[in-house]
């Protein structure tokens, strides 16, 4: 009997040792105490993150510094910001100002708890996707949290936020200020009259041209066509792409994301960016970007909040209720209120997003057109109105002409 008890004791001891040996390497499940992510300087962590998500830390230091949790497509699930220089006692005023910044949307205020702390919830808040905003105080700091209300993953991420005592100083990260990174320019002299340079035809250029006659184009309900009596142009210069790329100099395509693909969705959603007719044009880093037509700059800066994935953006009022947006820029060359002509360099191509460079896997110009939209000026975010289809887009090279309708992977010339 004693020998049998000793045998069971030995087996039990070995089993206990085995369990405690493998436990630290087990995957962390919802509700577990081991964190899967911590930012000790911000004082925020997560006890759970869904699969196929990524935490993107800001590369530049802004007054709303933080990180973003994105899904596999780069869509915002949650963004956590420390409102640096803002006292927690200002939370109510900030909530009121935020609610008042969307006059066309009835934003509701309610109370919730985040990691056991009382917080203010504001919803709906516009963005590339519809979001909610949480204002919460922890460790003497005021945090602003955006989360995607269209996805269950957004809420599940926010529910797993934990606040920890902050350690360290932001200055030790050596980050450049976000506002100082807006007006970066190419490491070469770009001050050339690009529209008078590089004349002549590209060999085989005529075979790359798109349709020169107007076909029947489908416009989904809620979207509109950009009027053919208003001027539009391709937004790059004669020296775009070329050496080091798979595209001839002065050429690009309508892709990788075409109308209605990926994040290019929405015709007339009142609380979201309507980008059904947005196009991505592959370019190389620092390629010149022009406006699609002359107009007045409404916004030039980092897109924030629920639009942060757009990176550096320039929004131009083209008149008659039509706006244009160029996004993911590497640098910006204009300021709000400035009049721009068709030869004004508004910026340079990049892959920026979420307060950082090179977030997106390819350098491209994200171009969108909008009718009767609204602007959240504090975030550089467009919402509401209608997505507008680009029609009769003028090109100057190879004899000049118009792309009446842009097909998927359409070759397009400067």
Give a structural overview:
By secondary structure, the chain is mostly beta strands. The chain folds into two domains: 37-179, Protein Transport Mog1p, Chain A (3-Layer(aba) Sandwich), CATH 3.40.1000; 182-188 and 203-413, Glucose Permease (Domain IIA) (Distorted Sandwich), CATH 2.70.70. 10% of the residues lie in helices and 32% in strands. It has helices at 2-22, 91-100, 152-159, 205-208; strands spanning 37-39, 44-46, 54-57, 60-61, 64-70, 76-83, 108-114, 117-125, 131-138, 141-148, 161-163, 176-177, 224-225, 251-253, 279-282, 288-289, 295-302, 312-319, 322-329, 331-332, 339-340, 347-348, 364-371, 374-376, 381-383, 386-389, 393-395, 401-403, 411-413. The strands form eight sheets. Strands 13, 15, 17, 18, 19, 21, 23 and 26 form an eight-stranded mixed sheet that branches. A seven-stranded antiparallel sheet has the order 3-5-6-10-9-8-7, sandwiched between helices. A hairpin with a 5-residue loop joins strand 27 (393-395) and strand 28. The protein is globular, with a radius of gyration of 25 Å. The model is unreliable at 1-33 and 198-216 (pLDDT under 50).
As a whole number of angstroms, the C-alpha radius of gyration is 25 Å
Poorly predicted runs: 1-33, 198-216
Mean pLDDT: 87
What percentage of residues falls in helices of 4 or more residues? Answer: 10-25%
Keywords summarizing the entry:
eight-stranded mixed β-sheet; Protein Transport Mog1p, Chain A; mainly beta
